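Lay summary. Proteins are chains of building blocks that fold into shapes, and those shapes determine what they do. In this project we predict the shape from the chain. Here is one chain we studied, written as its sequence of building blocks.
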Amino acid sequence: MIERVNKENIEEYEQFIKDHPKGLFQHSSKWAKVKSAWKWEAIMLKDDSGKIKGSAAVLIRTIPVIKYSLFYACRGFVADENDFETFDALFNGLLDLAKEYKAYCIKIDPEIEIKNQEYKEHLIEKGFFELNPGCMDFENVQPRFVYCFDYNGLNEDELMLTFKSDYRTRIRKAPKKGVEVKVCGVEALDDFVRIMGETGERDGFSTRPKWYFEKILNCMGEDARLYMAYYKGQAIAGTIAIKWGKNVMKYQYGASSNAHRNVYPNYALQWAMMKWGMECGCQVYDFGGISGDCQNPENPHYGLWRFKHGFGGYMKEFVGEFDYVINKPVYKLYNIAMDLKKKIR
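And here is the predicted shape, written in a compact code that computers can read:
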């Protein structure tokens, strides 16, 4: 039986996605408040005993004037990945919901590893088609490639031994050189945003405004932390980490000043976030997106991979991003408008 998530059953839903191995913070109504420019809806599939078998959440953006909507199922459904019966029931539930919102497309980018080809084939059988097949960079909404490591029940000393020797040295040297890492609140966001601006200018990417990071900290509550690194009383680097149940500790955002890089604030910050994940009993530490070709020294993202790789771990590739088109004329018109917008920018 498909059940729509509402204020009466929202706690049951949230507990399910925190307990399920496929549950992520992107599925939560908390994250939906961060993304408040979109409307959020979720459904659950329950068996005859009332136990939840799976869930699907979508962010909904309505196009002005024509009033058609895009459904975005960020990181896919929360269900056992080879339970295609549950997948189909949830998908049909979304199609029913799509009629209400005049959805022209359902977009999905499941956090399912590429080695599960059966899952990808099932998406295609249902009528989804892949966007940017074979992409090696950051063409999709969410990264197709991420770098991570499994905690495997290791303690701090054991985990440290999985790092490169010079990384262990830098982590230990940072406090000796005077770096102090603090868990901060919104009062430290001015410094974080300033340093983020430096980072974006240095590395060539656009950055988020202060209010966005403030929403993350306020809406995610105890599931998000702002870490700041200080040297001689001056903020020189910062990160935002988000955890979800016992599944994942996610390094979501990072910023570092051009000054005082020789005191290793970035290594100290990573270690602080890793220890938080360990304290929470998380299974995985997620460093975030990388390029699929990042191990090539000619790749502009090679330095990013090299930094993350020094902590041990491995690269993970997901099946990709897929669209299910409900209204072809609107879908085509929307894509033309988006291409034009990019050219204007």
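What the prediction tells us: The mean pLDDT is 94.
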